[in-house]
Amino acid sequence: MTVTVIYGGKSGEHEISLVSGAAVARNIDEKNTVQLIAITKEGRWFLQPQSELERIKADSKAAFKIIEDESQEVSVIPAGGTKRTFRVGNDYIGADVVFPVLHGPFGEDGTIQGLFEMIDVPYVGCTTLGSAITMDKEKTKVALAQAGIPVVPGICVRRSDLADWKRYDEILEQAQKELGFPLFVKPCSAGSSDGASLAPDLQKLNGAIMEAFNWDDKILIEKAVNAREIECSVTGNPTIDDGTVPAEKLTAYGPGEIAPKHDFYDYDAKYNDPDGADLLIPANLPEEKLEEVRTLAKKAFAALDLAGLSRVDFFIDKDNGELYLNEINTMPGFTQISMFPKMCAAFGLDFTALTNLLITEAVARFKKTRGLKTSR
To answer: Does the pTM of the predicted model rise above 0.90?
Structure first.
């Protein structure tokens, strides 16, 4: 089977994707042929030489580099399927399944998933709709609340609100009255804590809002929960699981706990500071609480029609013990310190077994959905 790993991308998480993509590529079962496509920050696609795969396999800490050979620029073929998936120069290349290790906008938000649907090729991860909903933190909160899943109280602010100073003042007053300081401000559709900050007072709140709007046209102001950060890995496809494909079984691994040594689990703590946080697997919680997290993680995954994989992130309020679902990441990091593969491994699913499961689920989903009618 030819597995095409795609990485890089136009988002602020481009560099993280180079690390995650390399980790995934070196942990794909050797019975498969791995093909590499890199996307530059400008959005151009390039087929990568096999020497790049050999380089990262020889060094377990190496990240991908992008080689921009003009003769190897890639075009996609609508309805090309698995035989004529991409075009490079005058040649067509196929892909039995695509593994898009892309984080953030243009990779995790449904855009590239829609493209794969148009190409008519199997792909790892959530569908177009599932990816789009979970990328928008506000829409995710609305959908989860509708499903009876507790979420952190917050207020959504749109860029248009900034144009009306009376409306903006009302939002600031509402945030202080209903939520109270400290407040957490973040873009609705960014990842890796890009544009997110903690505001202890009104002056810092204004600055945090402006910073978040550098990353998105819609932001969230949330109650800053004095929280323990709990994460749970989930795999499967509860929407179509009929018991015939084990990889489709809804399964939760973990949960684990992030104990950040920064003000919160920000970009530096996640990726730059090797001592930025302690990772505890399993989380230091009673078994009944661990099971409650696993149950809620699976409930959220199913409620949003997710597929393949997701990391479901929770807060436990240190003051009152309340459990909140914070957000869902449909293509979590696969770096050396990333929680998703670590939790899977700790609960019996090593990295190679994990990539096998995700590829199997993707191909099975493709076969089942292509059996549905699309016209009379």
So the answer is: yes
